[in-house]
Specification:
elongated
């Protein structure tokens, strides 16, 4: 394939256009909306830590299993244990509540009493003033740490 030769007329047109030196019109950069925070208000942890928690890449420093406890015993145990974990300098702890009745079997023996009570109550307890002062963030655990039946509690640094 041979190259096409440019005519004198084409060359003159090119030189004339080149001398005019018109700038290329570039579209103005779009303003990118800031990312919305995951939680409403300050979460107490940075985005990288939130992402590592979401992916289950952080191992809890300590864990407590509240299965089989009454509501009153679980409340007392959780408060004492979280204060102790904070004093020990732990940052990420795992609170296992269980899922309640995942199969929704209405005829099961455990259905004779309220089910999933700890799963409902633990997040409320964590918002109480005494514990809220120790906690930076609470979120559902990654599946490998218990998923919907457990909570990551990220504790604030000791003062």
């Amino acid at each position: 394939m041979s190259r096409r030769t440019t005519s004198d007329e084409e060359r003159k047109l090119f030189e004339k256009t080149f001398k005019e030196g018109r700038p290329i019109k570039v579209a103005a950069p779009r303003k990118v909306a800031a990312k919305k925070p995951i939680a409403n208000g300050p979460s107490g942890i940075n985005g990288a830590t939130q992402e590592r928690l979401r992916r289950g890449l952080m191992e809890p420093d300590a864990r407590i299993d509240l299965h089989g406890m009454t509501q009153e015993a679980a409340h007392r145990t959780l408060f004492t244990w979280l204060r102790s974990a904070h004093r020990s300098g732990h940052r990420l702890v795992l609170v296992i509540t269980g899922k309640g009745n995942p199969k929704n079997d209405e005829n099961a023996p455990w259905m004779m009493s309220p089910h999933g009570v700890l799963k409902q109550m633990v997040p409320r307890w964590l918002k109480e003033a005494e514990l809220a002062a120790l906690i930076a963030n609470v979120r559902t655990a990654h599946a490998k740490h218990g998923g919907a039946g457990a909570l990551y509690v990220y504790l604030r640094k000791r003062a």
